[in-house]
Each structure stands twice: as C-alpha cells, then as structure tokens.
Design brief:
The complex is a heterotrimer of chains A (about 150), B (about 120) and C (about 90). Chain B has about 120 residues and is mainly α. Chain B is about 60% helix and about 0% strand. Chain B is elongated. The longest helix of chain C has 24 residues, at about 1-25. Chain C is flat. Chain C has five helices and no strands. The chains are: A mainly alpha (about 150), B mainly alpha (about 120), C mainly alpha (about 90).
C-alpha cells in the first residue's frame, strides 16, 4: 500500500475517470468512441486503484458475484436486442422511426441529437458493461495470483 | 523517380514492425521477450489495416464535423477495432500460461520447459 | 555471430518483400475500388439514424462480427479465471 498522499489523490480522481468513461460510452453514435473504448477507460481507472491500494483490500470491495452478474447481463441484453427484431431478419434495427430512440438526423453535417441512432446506444451500453466487468476480473485475478497464493473462490 | 521506388512511409513502418517481430520470435529464447514480439506483430498489422483505408486529403468519417466528399473509408477502422480486442484477449491468456510455467519449472527459458514429464 | 548476421540479412529481405507487396494492393492514399464504402457513407444517416459512420458499420451493417468478438472476449475471461483457480485443488489432493 502506498503513502497517504497517493491514496487520497486516487480517491479524489476515481469519480472523474468513471464519469469520463461513461460519457464516451453514452455518446457512441455522435462522437468517436463507443462501447469498447469507454470500457477500456474505466478499466484503466480500476488499475490505478489496484496500484494505490493492496490487492487483498480491493478483493473485499469488488466481489466476484457482482462482476459475474454484470458480465452475464451485458451479454444477455446484447443477444436479446438482436433477437427482438426476428420478425424481419435476425439483427434488424427495429427502433428507427419509433418514439424511443428513433429520430432521423438531417442530412449533411449537423450538431448531434442524442435521441437518434435506433438500437445502437443500447448495444453500446451492453458491450460497455461486458468489457468493464470482464477486464476488471482478469486484472484482479492476475494480481492476486502473482503476489500471494490466495486463489479467489 | 518516386514512381519506380515504392516508398510509402506508413507501409514502410508497418513492414519494419512486422520484420523486427519475426526476428524476435525466431531467434530469442526468453519467454517474456517472445510475448513482446507477438504484441509488436499485432501492432504492425493494426497499423497496416488503418493505413489501407486512407484517402488523400480526407478526414474522419463522422457527420458532426465535415461534409461527406472528403471522408476516408470507414470499414477498415471497424475491422481494426475488432482486431485490437482479440489481441488483448490472446495476450491475457499467454501471460497467465507463462506464470504457470514459471511456477512449475522454475526458469523462464524456453529450452528447459520442453520435456513432458509427469 | 554468424547466426545473427544471417538473421539480419533475412530480416532486410523480408522487409523489402513486404513493402513491395503492400505497394501492389494500391499506392498509399488513392484506393481504387471503394463502392461498398461509398454506399455506406451515403446511406448511413437515413437507414440507421446515427452520425457516426464507424459505429453504424460496427453495430448495424456488420453486427454478426461484433457478436463473435464479444464471444471471444467472454471465452478469454473464462479461460483466465479457470487457469488461476486450478492450483488450489492440486495442493489439496496431493
């Protein structure tokens, strides 16, 4: 565990990093970004937490059951949205034109409207959940495995 | 003169990265250096894929910024994203196996971990 | 010493061959046949409704490739967690 200054600065920085990563995930259909890139940003914040605190202490906060439920629900939302448009074809974009996410932007360069995009923002959210949970579990497992002989259950 | 010598600089950089990583994989024995060689090969291939889809004087293919006549091709960028994620997954599995080999045999030499003993 | 000199000469031959082969696809900056990409740049705003053409390509025109990539990520995470766990049972049995 590093000194007290490093721990305090890390505690102050973590909300900013998480909000920045969620902003990149949420605006995936207007600016460069999307599910995979935003998930990588949040995982780099978790790695900073792992360096500042001990890995044994982080094991108490990030329990394995919560990470497993997050990853599985991300995969299930992805496949559910792909199966929802099975009336026409397997992966049909069924929300274009409907009032939830279905505005159509004017052609040519325009400032973006966030309610556009069809089924794309929901899929960005599902892929972001999957990447965050999966890569956090891998990083935590490798840190625990290589330092002590404590294997998580 | 430049018509006879095919010298495009992004292609030269990608070919140099791939060539150096092939030299590392063939001639070096340390396991960590082999993993670094594989990571460098992945970087070279990703750079080649993105450089294939460039149009001279173009910009990013996003409608919020620029008009549509000067956009670069969007499909190689999507393929590169998929390739980067797959390389991360393969590298994580390789590192885990190297840690297990080090625990079992006690050295990081690829010549010593060749025998199949029970 | 002789082995490393052979390796360096082979590396130079390989780099020259790769540069010549990459130039044969098309010279850098002037792609020849780009009909599929022109169709996607034209019609991505009306059919999918998003401003980002790369996100529309990844999540609407080629959704099955993204589904396969998500499966690979899931399988790799599962494989790493399995390999880390297996040492405890071996110590309990022996």
């Amino acid at each position: 565990m590093l000194s007290k200054i490093v721990r305090t600065v890390t505690n102050g920085f973590m909300p900013i990093i998480i909000i920045f990563g969620l902003y990149i995930i949420a605006h995936g259909h207007l600016t460069p970004g999307g599910g995979f890139q935003g998930g990588a940003v949040v995982v780099s914040g978790v790695v900073m937490l792992l360096v500042a605190f001990n890995s044994q202490e982080l094991k108490k906060s990030l329990r394995e059951r919560v990470l497993s439920i997050m990853e599985s629900s991300g995969a299930l939302i992805f496949i559910g949205l792909a199966f929802a448009g099975i009336g026409t074809v397997f992966a049909y974009n069924l929300l274009v034109g409907s009032p939830i996410f279905g505005h159509i932007p004017p052609t040519g360069p325009n400032p973006g409207d966030i309610w556009t995009g069809g089924v794309i923002p929901l899929m960005n959210f599902a892929v972001g959940l999957k990447v965050i949970a999966g890569l956090s579990a891998v990083v935590l497992a490798l840190a625990l495995f290589s330092s002590g002989e404590e294997v998580e259950e | 003169m430049t018509e006879h010598i095919p010298l495009d600089f992004p292609f030269l950089a990608a070919a140099l990265l791939m060539g150096i990583s092939f030299y590392i994989i063939i001639f070096k024995k340390n396991l960590i250096k082999l993993i670094m060689g594989v990571a460098m090969l992945a970087a070279g291939v990703n750079l080649f894929l993105v450089a294939l889809g460039y149009r001279a004087g173009g910009g990013a293919p996003i409608y919020t910024g620029i008009p549509k006549e000067t956009m670069v091709l969007p499909v190689p960028q999507a393929l590169t994203l998929t390739s980067i994620v797959i390389n991360v997954a393969v590298l994580a599995l390789m590192l885990t196996m190297v840690i297990r080999i080090y625990r079992h045999t006690g050295s990081l030499d690829s010549e010593k971990s060749r025998k199949l003993k029970g | 010493m002789k082995r490393q000199v052979t390796g360096l000469i082979l590396l130079l031959v390989l780099v020259a061959f790769l540069v010549w082969g990459m130039h044969l696809t098309h010279p850098f900056g002037y792609p020849g046949a780009s009909d599929m990409d022109d169709y996607m740049i034209e019609n991505a705003q009306e059919e999918t409704g998003s401003n980002n053409v790369v996100a529309a390509v990844l999540f609407d025109y080629r959704l099955l490739d993204t589904l396969g990539e998500a499966t690979i990520l899931f399988t790799a995470v599962m494989g790493v967690l399995l390999l880390v766990r297996a040492s405890k049972r071996k110590e309990n049995n022996s």
